[in-house]
Automatic annotation (TrEMBL):
InterPro entries: YqfX-like (IPR055338). Keywords: Membrane, Transmembrane, Transmembrane helix. The chain crosses the membrane at residues 28-61, 73-96. This is Small hydrophobic protein. It comes from Streptomyces tauricus. The lineage of its organism: Bacteria, Bacillati, Actinomycetota, Actinomycetes, Kitasatosporales. PANTHER family: MEMBRANE PROTEIN (PTHR40040:SF1), SMALL HYDROPHOBIC PROTEIN-RELATED (PTHR40040). Residues 1-28 are annotated as: Disordered. The keyword Membrane applies.
Length: 102
């Protein structure tokens, strides 16, 4: 029998660092980047920075909607969603006949 090639009782994959969720500084950094994207999106390129803020916030939450959420990640997701909706409304308003929102 060859050593090392049989089935072992290992319960975890060898590369544990790739399978765990983001935590600590990684999560905090993504949340802050998401908030910065969302705030900047209110002034320029909201249609691009809004979804970027949502994605950064979602990744900072560990790609889960349940459980404990970092505050910055939740703020990034909410502001990113508001930013995206406002950008879409503004684009629709500018495409209307007359080209004015009001």
């Amino acid at each position: 029998m060859m050593a090392g090639y049989s089935h072992t009782s290992r319960k975890h994959p060898r590369s544990r660092s790739r399978t765990r969720s983001r935590s600590g500084p990684d999560s905090a950094t993504l949340g802050i980047i998401g908030v910065i994207c969302a705030v900047a999106g209110f002034f320029v390129l909201g249609i691009i920075l809004g979804p970027a803020a949502i994605v950064c916030g979602w990744l900072a939450m560990g790609r889960r909607w349940n459980g404990a959420r970092p505050v910055t990640a939740l703020i990034a997701v909410v502001l990113g969603a508001i930013d995206t909706v406002l950008a879409i409304v503004l684009m629709i308003g500018m495409a209307a006949p007359g080209g004015m929102m009001f």
